[in-house]
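Lab channel / #folding
Pinned by the channel admin:
"Please post every new chain as: sequence first, then the structure tokens as a reply. Keep commentary short and put observations after the output so the thread stays searchable."

First post following the new format, from NK:
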Amino acid sequence: MERFDRIDKNMEQINEKLAILIEGQKTIIENQQKTFNFLIQLADSINVQHNEIMNEFKTVENEIYENRELITSNWESKCQSCLEIIKTRLRMDIYQDILPKHDALLQEYANIDGEGAVLSHCAAYIASYRFASDKSKINPNFSAIASKDSFKNAHNLEELQLITEQSFKLFFQSKEFKQSKENRNILITALFYPSPNINELNNKFASTEVSTDDKNYKSEFKNEYFLKLLLPQAIERHGFVIRNMNYLTNISDGKGNLINLNKVADENFILRDLKLELNEAIQLNNIAIAQQTMLSGDILLPIIYDILEIEKNDTLLSSKSKDLLKRNATLATNFTNYYFSKRTNSSSLNLLQYAFAYTSKDSTLFKIIVNPLFPVEYIKPTDSRIKTYNIKEGWHMIISNLPYRIPEPTLIDNISLVQLESLQILIDNRNKSYKQLKSYSIYDGLSPDQKTDLNYIIMKTQN
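Reply from TO:
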């Protein structure tokens, strides 16, 4: 019996300890539940605060965009006044030889100071938004960031702005640019005339000749002019306005003041400098061309090649070059073609070796023979990247995990450079302005009085 009593007593002690343990477990579970509930409340609070912060960011972003629109509204209204006169009221296009009717011009000048003084607003646009090479900076209203596109597109433009700025800073830091002031001017001028293919790029890079067109109208361009990306559409429209309003030589006098038509024959009337005005528009257009040219690589390609392939000792410039190739797909595409074109004409590799490696379809063999700067792979039809990047089977150089097709051996000496669509628009715009600028040679050699008389005769015969 004593044995059973001891067992009962031990069981009671065990039950007591189990009860204590169970009670402790209940306390732990309750505390865990409280902690869990607190974490849920904390997460909800964080989500609320996050949403509030994101809404504030969105509000700030929208306010920034609205401010951009407000900044450009005054400029836009003046420019629209010019477009209204040219396209609607006078129905003219000087480039297509569509001239305004004399009666329509008289009607515009009759309302210079009236309620519908559109001509005055246009004259203000021309006076306020000229580009002069002696200015410290270009009017910000021409910049891409100040454009009135959607906010989503504004983010894309900001990325282009960053790429533009980084590209030119790398260009300005290059040994070729720093070599001499003369070399600097040659390289700057070279950007005004994009290279259609790699052969012409190589010739241009080695050239010491400044373009014939720029010898007569050459200006010193400050480096800062190129750092803010200009919107091609704004530059094209500006050229259209200047060409047409410039033709109306009696819109203002030599001091930029708007005048009445009857003052054209005044003996004290001094014509404003038409050539200067058009040339300034051309130079502004040239800066926009240089930026679009730089975005596609062009003169920057041999510079990046030298940094990455030849010098290999400047880690800062190498890092900047690789970052640009990562950010700019057009630059990376052109660099891939330029790289192999340059390598096959070097002492380390010839075209026959390149062709042998190319036809092998063997990535390991290609690496041994060519030893490329970036990895090169033969991407097969079953590779997922075919669909992901919408590419074809074949050899690709991998830059920042993105595939860029390398040139076929038979085409390596005749490779075209990929250009941005807006580049041709700007080139056409410049050519139209050049044509009009050169037509003003009829005024050469005439006295101020003779120029005034000739201008008056031209205006009177527009019936």
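NK: The chain has a mean pLDDT of 77.
TO: also worth noting, The longest strand covers residues 394-399.
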